[in-house]
Amino acid sequence: MKIKIIVLLGIMLPFLGTYAQEKLAQNTIIGVLNGNQSQVVQLAEAFPEDKYDWRPADGVYSVREALLHVAGANYFLMTKMGFAPPEDVDMMNLSAITGKENVIRALKASNAFILEKIPLIEDSKLSEEVDFGFMKINTMGGLLAVMEHNGEHKGQLIAYARTNGIAPPWSLQ
């Protein structure tokens, strides 16, 4: 009986390794992106509504504009990878959204959209070229750009928060 189990495991083990590698890039990006998105939302929630129009200097995004920029970029980048935004999303007027609750709702919806679409990208498509308008890169690079973009603006919003005396909710100080 033990020999049968060992032989069976010996036959199945290579297949288990292959299965674990399916969607490895997509699942890894989702993990990092989910963390960045969660922290951006926490920052959005930590800012009082009267600070949503605060900006560090003229010509620089306000808190509200930075959050809506992230939401818009989430949709834009995924659109270029073949996923149309939901019908109720008006890409041309995202920047006009006002009110803390509305901004957070738009941000969360764009985050959910990305997390829903990334697993739909097949491994075989990761090397296909995508034209984002400002650069041509493969789908894998596009997914990394989505992840990096969210991280970039998380850093921006951390600086905005600290400048306004707001500690990021996950930090010790």
Automatic annotation (TrEMBL):
- Lineage, top-rank taxon, reads Bacteria
| Keyword set, alphabetical order | Metal-binding
Q: Which InterPro entries match?
A: DinB, DinB/YfiT-like
Amino acids binding a divalent metal cation: 69, 149, 153
Q: Which organism is it from?
A: Cellulophaga tyrosinoxydans
What is the protein name stated in its UniProt record? Uncharacterized damage-inducible protein DinB (Forms a four-helix bundle)
**Which Gene3D superfamilies does the protein's record reference?**
dinb family like domain
What family does the database annotate?
Answer: Belongs to the DinB family.
Entries under SUPFAM superfamilies matching the protein: DinB/YfiT-like putative metalloenzymes
GO molecular-function term, one example from the UniProt record = metal ion binding
